[in-house]
């Protein structure tokens, strides 16, 4: 147990140093990279990028699967040490941005995150794992401390707002579990957010076709 604790403390110390010296400045450069890439594109609400904070990294790095460590080399295996996010106005814009992303990057992984059942409403978003561009790796940064990949999410305003609120209400560390009635309220608001997203996208498409 003591050996495990010392290992976790050493891992945290190494990651904290990497976080401050390498990951944070690279995340900032990646945000600027995407902002420049999309500067002429309409209906982009925001572009963000962040380095995974040390507490979140350590929690993920020390996770167990069937009683055994999930990661043997977490500093090289965990792919979301740097994450970027692009928020668009409408669902149609997600498809447009998808084309731009795929013209500049070759996704290592790609998937649309949707609930498992058509009767469920919950998290929606488009996720990518992409190779970290060489031109965001600053000259003063030790390249060996940077991950090979980063995670990108592309979401609409409604998808982003709902997922942020849902995470805060249901998954904040130390918070009490949601009651069955609270879960129903969360499901209800999720369905409303999904419906609003659909309606705004349909209105946008209809008006765009009328103006073409």
Task: Tell me about this structure.
- By secondary structure, the protein is of the alpha+beta class.
- It has a single domain, classed as Beta Polymerase, domain 2 (2-Layer Sandwich), CATH 3.30.460.10.
- The chain is built from 6 helices and 7 strands; from the N terminus they run αβαββαβαβββαα.
- The strands form 2 sheets. A 5-stranded mixed beta sheet has the order 1-4-7-6-5.
- A hairpin with a 2-residue loop joins β2 and β3.
- α1 packs across α2 and α5 runs antiparallel to α6.
- The chain is flat and about 65 Å long.
Cα-based radius of gyration, to the nearest Å:
19 Å
The major pleated sheet works out as: 5 strands, mixed
Q: Assign the structural class, choosing from mainly alpha, mainly beta, alpha/beta, alpha+beta, or little secondary structure.
A: alpha+beta
Strand tally: 7
Low-confidence stretches: 115-122
- CATH C-level class is Alpha Beta
* Overall pLDDT confidence: 86
What is the compact description of this entry?
The protein has 212 residues and is an alpha+beta fold. The protein is 51% helix and 18% strand.
